[in-house]
Write a structure and sequence with these properties.
Layout: H1 13-32, H2 39-56, H3 66-94, E1 110-113, H4 118-124, E2 128-133, E3 136-141, H5 144-169, E4 171-178, E5 182-190, E6 193-212, E7 218-229, E8 232-239, E9 244-246, E10 249-258, E11 262-269, E12 274-275, E13 279-282, E14 286-288, E15 294-301, E16 305-308, E17 318-321, E18 325-331, E19 338-343, E20 349-353, E21 359-363, H6 374-383, H7 390-397, H8 399-402, H9 407-426, E22 431-439, E23 442-450, H10 454-473, E24 477-482, E25 485-490, H11 494-504
Antiparallel strand pairs: 1-25, 2-3, 3-24, 4-23, 5-6, 6-7, 7-8, 9-10, 10-23, 11-12, 11-13, 11-22, 14-15, 15-18, 16-17, 18-19, 19-20, 20-21, 24-25
Length: 505
């Protein structure tokens, strides 16, 4: 069969290998660069200039970039052309020839005299006799090599079709589900534009479960889902690295976080010695500061593992679970915003975040849920600017609050007051929250991927792998025996024929 002149340059091994190499390089870029994120996230990682450059060349959505789709189409054309050109000849090689070729046809084959026991030797080498008549004999070895040619090329064709299908009508989007919520839509981001995509099923979140490392970092998070499709309900568990399949859709667990947990808090101004009535709020909500300013509730944790020193003699910190905690940002006039953390079960502990967002737990000495000692702390803090030391101020004012206590309890409380003064003055802490109660609400972020080429991709991968194995493992060799002469041809070329001649002696 003859191809049009325009397609002949593509119907070569060199052209196909060049296109495959270009696609491989592009696929590496698509693997290492996270795809289809909002532009703001790319700017954070790469900066404005390189984000603009990478966006123009399509690195943030490689598999749908026009140049990638064009390469797939060219490769599809190239391999199809190879099949169109060489396929019929390969197929004829697998069939039994109708006649013995003439001298002209065999002139390009390697030749040698046939040894007396050639038939026995060829049989031992794995050759099969295909033709045996007066005109000559045909021996053949490695026929699976030719089948491997078809598998390899058909596999590449199917891979290209799968890629074109995915680029054309495939998509991926995000589903955010809080516990107890249901949805049948996914949010798809394309070029900073978000649109809703309706799913052919409804997802309902039955709940979440999280396991942690000893350090407190999550080790596994999974979501219990109930899917309703066509009136039929099925239950699924989706976890990180353990996606599920519903109809033609794959669902992956990507992240999780607080879903506006409900909290009850008291705002305490430790410098003024005042506290507010109990306030109710939700994470991500901004509360008005009762003493001026705002308090933004940023995160909640049911399990909070911190690295702390249990006592002064301890050389290395230990991990300890302090239970529920609340992160919040306090913004008051004339002061920079402070990111803090309070603990529901440990009212004498507050954590202060540094510039990188890492928290350092600080023991206050006194408990936030008990008034004892805080009036003296407030008095000492207000008088420190006058030049007196905390110990002197404690001696002057502590008797007003501690005189009725037994001696040992009075001394213990006095040490705790000095500890609170040191922590609050050193870290300039004025306002903290006391966390009274909480109700955790989590969300789970799921990635939904519709890939119409996925099944075809795996079929193509199997064919391609099997084809390569057949072509590498088997040598396709043919030997005509005519008039006591061996005519040899191998798909590995002249060197393989020479090797075979030496084996035959």
């Amino acid at each position: 069969m003859k191809l049009p002149k325009q397609l002949r340059p593509l119907a070569t091994m060199r052209a196909a290998l060049l296109i495959l190499a270009a696609l491989a390089i592009a696929s590496v870029a698509g693997t290492f660069v996270t795809q289809q994120l909002p532009t703001e996230e790319y700017i954070t990682v790469y900066g404005p200039f390189w984000t603009e450059v990478f966006g123009l060349i399509g690195l943030f959505d490689v598999y749908r970039a026009p140049w990638f789709v064009a390469l797939l189409a060219i490769l599809l054309t190239s391999v199809t052309s190879c099949l169109f050109t060489n396929g019929p000849g390969m197929w004829r090689q697998l069939q039994k020839p109708k006649r013995v070729p003439g001298a002209k046809a065999l002139s390009s084959w390697e030749q040698t005299l046939a040894p007396k026991n050639y038939a026995e030797q060829l049989a031992q080498l794995g050759f099969r006799k295909i033709i045996d008549n007066e005109a000559g004999e045909l021996w053949r070895q490695g026929a699976p090599n030719r089948i491997g040619y078809y598998f390899t090329h058909i596999g590449i064709v199917l891979l290209c079709i799968a890629g074109l299908l995915t680029a054309g009508i495939g998509w991926q989007g995000m589903v955010i589900l809080r516990e107890g919520e249901s949805t049948n839509t996914a949010h798809v981001i394309r070029k900073d534009a978000m649109r809703e995509k309706e799913l052919p099923f409804t997802l309902h979140s039955e709940g979440f479960s999280t396991r942690h490392f000893p350090s407190g970092m999550p080790s596994q998070h999974q979501t219990e889902l109930r899917a309703t499709i066509g009136g039929q309900q099925t239950t699924h568990t989706v976890a990180v690295n353990h996606p599920i399949r519903i109809a033609d859709y794959r669902i992956y667990q990507t992240s999780f976080g607080d879903g506006a947990s409900a909290v009850t808090v008291t705002v305490q101004d430790l410098f003024a010695g005042e506290h507010s009535p109990q306030l109710q709020g939700n994470v991500y909500q901004t509360l008005s500061h009762p003493f001026g300013g705002t308090i933004e509730l940023t995160d909640y944790r049911l399990t909070t593992v911190e690295s702390v020193f249990a006592d002064a003699a301890q050389k290395a910190p230990e991990f300890r679970d302090f239970g529920p905690s609340l992160d919040y940002t306090v913004t008051v006039p004339d002061r920079a915003p402070r990111l803090l953390r309070s603990y529901q079960n440990v009212p004498n502990l507050v954590a202060v975040a540094d510039d990188t967002g890492n928290f350092a737990p600080l023991y206050l000495g006194l408990r936030l849920d008990e008034p004892l000692g805080w009036a003296t702390v407030s008095t000492i803090l207000q008088n420190l600017p006058n030049g007196s030391s905390p110990t002197e101020l404690l001696q002057q004012h502590a008797h007003l609050e501690l005189s009725q206590l037994p001696e040992l309890e009075r001394l213990d409380t006095a040490f705790k007051i000095l500890q609170a003064v040191q922590v609050l003055s050193t870290h300039d802490l004025r306002t903290v929250l006391q966390l009274h109660s909480s109700e955790q609400r989590q969300y789970s972020a799921l990635m939904v991927r519709y890939d119409p080429g996925a099944t075809l991709f795996w079929v193509a991968s199997v064919l391609l792998s099997l084809g390569v194995l057949l072509m590498v493992y088997f040598h396709y060799r043919r030997i005509w025996v005519i008039s006591n002469t061996l005519y040899l041809r191998s798909n590995r070329g002249k060197s393989d024929c020479t090797k075979l001649i030496n084996q035959l002696g």
